[in-house]
Structures are given as C-alpha cells and as structure tokens.
Write a structure and sequence with these properties.
By secondary structure, the protein is mainly alpha-helical. The protein has 8 helices and no strands. Helix content is 78%, strand content 0%.
Length: 229
C-alpha cells in the first residue's frame, strides 16, 4: 500500500519534463526582472543619492545569483545531480542578501538617506511588489510538485524580494510627499518662489542705496539727480 501510494504521488516523466520547463521559464523571468531592477535602482539611486535605492539594487544583484544557480541546474541533462551545488549557491546568496538587508536597516536607523527624486524608486518598488509574488508562487508550486529543494528555496528568496519592495515603497513614500530637508512652501507656490522673493528684496534695497540696476536703469542716476538739484 505504501509503495503504491509513493509511486502514484510521483510525477510521470512527461509531467516532470513539463515542470522542468516551467521552472526554467519562471527562473528566466525572475532573472530578467531582477536585472532590470538592479540596473534601474543602482542608476536612479546613484543619481538621487538614495542609499535605499542602491541597497535595493544590490539586493536584486544577489537574487540574480540565486536564480542563476537554479537556471544552471536545470540546464543540464540531470538536474538532480546539480542540486547540491545549486543549494550551496542559494545559501551563500541568502547570506549576502541578509547582509544587504542589515546594512539597509542600519542606514534607516541612522537616518542617512537624502533621496532627491524618488519617483523612479516608487514605480520600481510598486511594479516589483506586483510581479514578484506571482513569480515566487508559480516557481514554488512547480518546485514542490517536482520535488526540487533548490527551486523552492529560490522561490522563497524571490518572495523576500517582495518584502524588500514593500520596505522600499514605505521608505520612499514620505520623501515624495515632502523631500527631506526641503523647506515647506505655501500651497500652489512654484519651487522658486522663495528665491524670487529674496531677489526682489535685494533689488529694492540696492535701489534705495543708490545702486543702478542693469535692467531698470534706476538707482544711481536718480540719486545723482536729487543730489545735483
């Protein structure tokens, strides 16, 4: 009875081939998404001086290594023979991802982040938050049915990317409402309103002191005229 149940629960060779192709597809999609995330996050984070975006990009790089290990495993004729090596790579990448998350947590506690233009980061985090859970779920189902521990482990790491996307979204959302360190402006006023106001005060003071403004032509001539009268 036990032997019959075990044989029945094991997928057929045809089904295993279908599941293996499905795993390769999910892994390829995961690698593509993470590469795009890494490039965009690192570029936008460097341009905006946002350590949150840079950390997210580094996390995506680590996840590419994990997914690449599974892709290498299923590229061979016998994926089961390569599973131990793939599991080791996934384990090391998980430690690397933990280091990135720890560094980002320390950065958040110290408050060392001055994001200038976080719109790109918000869009990137939102897209990742919508796509990564689907990839993780599909890969995990295929890995469990196939009996592949490496596939299931990589799917969990992909799910961790979803959590990081949520953290990034919560981290950058307040910056979008009001950039950190920027002075509060009146509702509806342009960004340079304060600069124009200060400029007008300086010009008015200069005219009162007799300095001739190059555009208005006033100031020194008026004072000279009054003095010569």
């Amino acid at each position: 009875m036990t032997t019959t149940a075990t044989v029945t629960s094991s997928p057929s060779p045809t089904r295993r081939a279908v599941l293996a192709r499905r795993v390769r597809w999910f892994v390829a999609a995961t690698i593509t998404c993470n590469v795009v995330e890494a490039v965009v996050a690192l570029a936008a984070g460097t341009a905006a001086s946002s350590s949150a975006l840079v950390g997210f990009g580094l996390g995506s790089v680590v996840e590419v290594a994990s997914a690449a290990a599974v892709a290498w495993q299923f590229a061979g004729r016998d994926p089961e023979a390569r599973e131990k090596v793939a599991l080791r790579v996934i384990a090391f990448s998980l430690f690397g991802l933990a280091a990135v998350v720890t560094a980002d947590a320390v950065r958040s506690l110290l408050g060392r982040d001055e994001a200038g233009h976080p719109t790109t980061g918000l869009v990137l985090a939102a897209v990742s938050l919508a796509v990564m859970p689907l990839l993780s779920h599909g890969q995990r189902r295929a890995g469990r049915e196939l009996g592949s521990r490496s596939t299931v482990a990589d799917s969990r790491q992909t799910l961790l990317c979803t959590y990081l996307s949520g953290v990034l979204l919560l981290d950058l959302a307040p910056v979008t409402v009001h950039l950190r360190g920027a002075p509060a402006a009146a509702p509806g006023s342009p960004p340079s309103a304060g600069w124009h106001h200060q400029r007008g005060r300086r010009e008015g003071q200069a005219q009162r002191e007799g300095w001739q403004h190059p555009r208005t032509g006033r100031g020194q001539r008026q004072r000279a005229g009054c003095g010569g009268a």
